[in-house]
């Protein structure tokens, strides 16, 4: 069977060239993920760039703040870009304290009374770049529910996925951060590399990796086209994990067509969502999806917040993009695409482990769910484009 996912075909659709990663590490267990992130930040010698949707003033946020202030005093240049809406509850004193330590901070998409409706646009990206040698992206935010601090309070944790990369792709991700930084009023970032550092990031054989970052209407359209292309050209399997699922009719039709041509389509969503309205809106389409052969699983226990998509076990997308209108139409989003069978096998293993902690929805059982649930689903589905 001919592989439909090639560097050339994906570049043609997304209109951006692949880079390479010399090393990739998946981060999907809370404590291990944050320990890795903190270890990498501790190793920084010259530069730290952080871009997060949510940066809370809780134990996790304060621990990271303390680390960043120490690195700044050691001479490391530290830049933080946070989303104004996502971090709305973080007090000004928290940012002021870090600024006093020499950290440069900017907010993206601030509210403006002259254009209040623009506040629907949010910077949902999660990006971390260290010394142009390592970079992270994924679904994680800086808050207790992601890191494991919540366990001390016996509250509900979140299951997320991130990816740590090394190699030439890191410099491209640094350029992405620089563009965002200057777009929101930050001064130009000057970062001088040694000849050895430049040699280390020069293109060479590695794992094909594609930065999939969207921060304009045109970029979001390219991202949607890439997802549609991936669904249309899958031949054996599609594994979709998303925290928020409010699909367009076009997306539903493409998934149904994939099943008809023999593709096994499996969808993993939260069992219980932090945004119940969005969850109900998505569930309004479950009957149709189940009828057309799409397998649906609801994650049990922790809150599922991961956004990962795997096609034919070889083409993976990991990042911040959900399968909802907010992500695909309004948000600035960040992902990395990995075209590699070995990496895809690891993604499959993680999906199968998640499925073990999930409940598969049975078509007949779903049909017999309470009438009150059906009413909620159809009501919130009316507003799915704004959830």
Description:
The protein is 39% helix and 23% strand. The protein is of the alpha/beta class and 387 residues long. It has two domains: 178 residues, Endonuclease Chain A (Endonuclease, Chain A), CATH 3.30.870.10; 178 residues, Endonuclease, Chain A. Strands 1-10-17-16-15-11-12-13-18 form a nine-stranded mixed beta sheet, sandwiched between helices. It is globular. The two termini are 40 Å apart.
Brief descriptors of the model:
2 domains, Endonuclease, Chain A, nine-stranded mixed beta sheet, alpha/beta, seven-stranded mixed beta sheet, 387 residues, 15 helices
What's the quick description here?
With 387 residues, this protein is α/β, with parallel strands linked by helices. It has two domains: 22-186 and 195-207, Endonuclease, Chain A (2-Layer Sandwich), CATH 3.30.870; 209-386, Endonuclease, Chain A (2-Layer Sandwich). It has helices spanning 7-14, 30-42, 59-73, 92-100, 144-147, 169-183, 195-200, 217-233, 249-260, 276-283, 286-291, 325-330, 341-356, 363-367, 371-381; strands at 19-21, 23-27, 47-52, 77-83, 104-108, 127-130, 134-138, 158-159, 162-166, 207-214, 237-241, 264-270, 295-299, 303-304, 308-311, 315-319, 333-339, 358-360.
């Amino acid at each position: 069977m001919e592989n439909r996912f090639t560097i050339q075909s994906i570049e043609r659709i997304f209109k951006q060239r692949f880079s390479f990663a010399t090393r990739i590490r998946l981060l999907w267990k809370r404590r291990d993920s944050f320990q890795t992130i903190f270890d990498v930040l501790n190793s920084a010698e010259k530069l730290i760039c952080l871009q997060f949707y949510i940066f809370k003033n809780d134990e996790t946020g304060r621990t990271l703040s303390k680390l960043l202030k120490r690195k700044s005093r050691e001479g490391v240049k530290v830049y933080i870009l946070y989303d104004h809406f996502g971090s709305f509850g973080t007090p000004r004193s928290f940012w002021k304290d870090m600024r006093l330590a020499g950290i440069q901070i900017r907010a993206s998409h601030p509210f403006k009374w002259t254009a209040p409706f623009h506040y629907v646009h949010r910077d949902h990206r999660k990006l971390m770049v260290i010394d142009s040698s390592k970079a992270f992206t994924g679904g994680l935010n800086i808050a207790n529910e992601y890191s494991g601090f919540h366990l001390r309070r016996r509250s509900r944790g979140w299951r997320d996925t991130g990816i740590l990369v090394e190699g030439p792709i890191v410099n491209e991700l640094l350029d992405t951060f620089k563009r965002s930084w200057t777009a929101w009023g930050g001064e130009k970032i000057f970062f001088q590399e040694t000849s050895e550092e430049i040699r280390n990031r020069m293109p060479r054989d590695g794992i094909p990796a594609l930065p999939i970052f969207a921060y304009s209407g045109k970029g979001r359209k390219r991202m949607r086209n890439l997802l549609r292309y991936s669904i249309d050209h899958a031949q054996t399997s599609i594994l979709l994990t998303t925290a928020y699922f409010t699909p367009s009719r076009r997306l539903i039709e493409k998934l149904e067509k994939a099943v008809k041509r023999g593709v096994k389509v499996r969808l993993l969503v939260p069992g219980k969502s932090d945004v119940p309205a969005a969850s109900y809106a998505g569930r309004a389409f479950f009957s149709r999806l189940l009828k057309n052969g799409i397998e649906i699983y609801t994650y049990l226990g922790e809150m599922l917040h991961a956004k990962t998509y795997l096609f034919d076990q070889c083409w993976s997308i990991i990042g911040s993009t959900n399968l909802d209108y907010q992500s695909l139409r309004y948000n600035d989003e960040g992902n990395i695409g990995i075209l590699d069978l070995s990496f895809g096998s690891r993604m499959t293993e993680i999906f199968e482990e998640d499925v073990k902690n999930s409940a598969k929805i049975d078509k007949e059982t779903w049909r017999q769910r309470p009438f009150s649930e059906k009413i909620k689903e159809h009501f919130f589905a009316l507003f799915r484009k704004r959830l």
